[in-house]
Amino acid sequence: ARAALEGPWGQITVAERVDLLYGVANEINRRFEDFLSAEVADTGKPRSLARHLDIPRGAANFKIFADVVKNVPTEFFEMATPDGRGALNYAIRRPVGVVAVVCPWNLPLLLMTWKVGPALACGNAVVVKPSEETPQTATLLGEVMNAVGIPRGVYNVVHGFGPGSAGEFLTTHPGVNAITFTGETRTGAAIMRAAADGARPVSLEMGGKNPAIVFADADLDAAAAGMIFGNFRNAGQACGATSRLIVEERAAKPLLERIVALLQRMRIGDPLSQDTDLGPLISAGQRAAVLGFLREAEGQLLCGGEAVPGDGYYVQPTVVAGVDPQSRLWRDEVFGPVLAARSFPDGDEAEALRLANDSPFGLTASVYTGDSARGLRLSRRLQAGTVWLGDAYTQPVEGIWGGYKHSGIGRELGPHGLLDFLEVKQIYSDGIGGARKPHYAQVLGA
Ligand code: NAD
User: Fold this and answer.
1) What is the structure's pLDDT at 446?
2) pLDDT of 445 higher than 70
3) What is the mean pLDDT of residues 166-174?
4) Residue 304 CA to ligand 1 centre (angstroms)
5) Rounded distance, CA 2 to CA 214, Å?
6) Options 103, 122, 239, 412, the catalytic residue
7) How far apart are CA 264 and CA 276, in angstroms?
8) Which H/E stretch holds residue 71?
9) Cβ–Cβ under 8 Å, residues 60 and 52
10) Most informative mutation of 180, 237, 239 for ligand 1 (most atoms within 8 A of CB)
11) pLDDT-derived band at 82, boundaries 50, 70, 90
12) How far does residue 386's CA lie from ligand 1's centre (Å)?
């Protein structure tokens, strides 16, 4: 990676980089079926989901960041000098250097490329460490890079585990200039400690336990559909999933009935079948962890609660109501198809907000209400990087992504997504032409 930065990659123009990144996007699309099969085989997610989400977004991440980088604004300011000539200061952006990219298993290509896309658009070289659970699409992307002529060494992949293996070796390596990570909060903390050695910058996208507040004046059909879309896609293995439902007392029964009815229509099955809505979890370990939450859960089990008998690591879509706000099920990230619900007293907006914000995490939040002033009021006070009004888990790639509190440090996507990958440099020039007497010497009377 270092050698690549010192080679032609370090000299090419933004326009040339943009062309290459468009080429990467087009080549992913040309090999769409290869990426699709690899992602489904690694994750077990429904093919229909990866077809509409993971792979097209993986390609789009290169196009979008190529477009964003063409339009990075810069700053100028003039200053007066005692000799009256004046001076000009301006900012330029330079790559940070070698970037370590450490990724999770839930959306392997999509989340990896929304880091690699901007890192390369800004002229860096990357070393990617995909999750040990989902190695294939990172390797396929290497083939794409070679095919379109990205110079050798610009995109590198190391496979392996985390602690005591590739992840730790990479993030403690002194040749790495910056680290970008998506994964669990405790892993992020370990990576931040590793980055302290050498004072290297980190950006962290981590866990979530995201609230949806639903008021009785909301369209309850839309809210129920939003909870299914927001919490059960990808079998609930999503950081931004709306996994805590906070519903106004008098709307609780009709809303929960609607949610359970929709879940009963969900088709659980073979990820390769077109009709499957809910696939298995990533691993036996993940299923055991999710079932552990369900075994100790108190409250009212409205549906699910068990593994699906037979092959595969399936868990039934589950709703538990009346969940204790101090319980693990309410506070910790389950990362499975499980919705924890509780109600708040009718009309008590302050209590709904308190329950929502009483969490170590702060990635996303949703509000469903027919009163737009109330929606806007709450959106300003919810401690979350994204708030959806009347919606859940809709994430435009041109937007902004990141979390408060234990959910992360920094923001990804859009122009914000470039900031982790750029050094900003100020250049001072006090005139064009040969050396002149420095004005500070005049000030000092020299
Ligand atoms: P994880 O933290 O277990 O692993 C993520 C990556 O870190 C893997 O590649 C792993 O090998 C590596 N790793 C583990 N320990 C390491 C160490 N000590 N040093 C360096 N690397 C190490 O996370 P996961 O189980 O793969 O993914 C699920 C988690 O990711 C969930 O908590 C989820 O909320 C989070 N996530 C967050 C976002 C977001 O945008 N905020 C998106 C997706 C997933």
Assistant:
1) 44
2) no
3) 98
4) 27
5) 51
6) 239
7) 13
8) none
9) no
10) 239
11) confident
12) 20
CA angle 159, 102, 160 (to 5 degrees): 20
Overall average pLDDT of the 253-278 stretch: 96
Find out whether the beta carbon of 115 lies less than 6 Å from any atom of ligand 1. no
308: left (phi over 0), alpha (psi -120 to 50) or beta: beta
Q: Is 239 a catalytic residue?
A: yes
Measured distance CA(265)–CA(401) in Å, rounded:
31
Written as six digits, the tokens of 33 are 């079926």
CA 106–ligand 1 middle distance (angstroms): 9
pLDDT over 60 at 132, yes or no: yes
In the block, tokens 């929709």 appear at: 262
Contacts 24+ apart (CB under 8 A), 164-167: 166/129, 167/102, 167/129
Give me the phi and psi of 373, to 5 degrees please: -65, -40
pLDDT interval class at 439 (50, 70, 90): low
Is ligand 1 within 6 A of the CB of residue 402? no
> What residue type is 203 in one-letter code?
S
303 is catalytic: no
To the nearest whole number, what is the mean pLDDT of the chain? 95
Query: Residue 283: which H helix or E strand, with range?
Result: none
**Strand spans (E) along 308-373:** 318-321, 338-344, 361-362, 364-368
Q: Residue 88 pairs with which residues in a beta bridge?
A: 78, 429
Closest of 33, 54, 176 to residue 107, by C-alpha: 54
Structure-token match 């999933």, residue found: 241
CA distance 334 to 320: 13
Query: Please, are residues 17 and 121 in contact by the beta-carbon 8 Å criterion?
Result: yes
Quickly count: other Cβ atoms within 10 Å of residue 83's Cβ.
14
Tell me the CA–centroid distance for residue 333 and ligand 1, in Å.
13
Is 429's pLDDT higher than 90? Answer: no
Nearest ligand 1 atom to alpha carbon 205: 41
End-to-end CA distance of the chain: 48
Q: What residue type is assigned to position 250 of the chain? A: R
Q: Looking at residue 87, what is its pLDDT?
A: 85
Rounded distance between C-alpha atoms, residue 227 and residue 232, angstroms: 8
Query: Which residue spans within 134-210 are E strands per DSSP?
Result: 155-157, 178-182, 202-205
Mean of the pLDDT values across residues 325-342? 98
What average pLDDT does the segment 85-107 reach?
Answer: 94
Residue 434 has pLDDT above 50, yes or no: no
Q: Taking the CB of residue 429, how many other CB atoms lie within 10 A of it? A: 9
The upper half-sphere exposure of residue 228, i.e. CA atoms within 13 Å in the direction of its Cβ, equals: 20
CA distance 384 to 210: 8
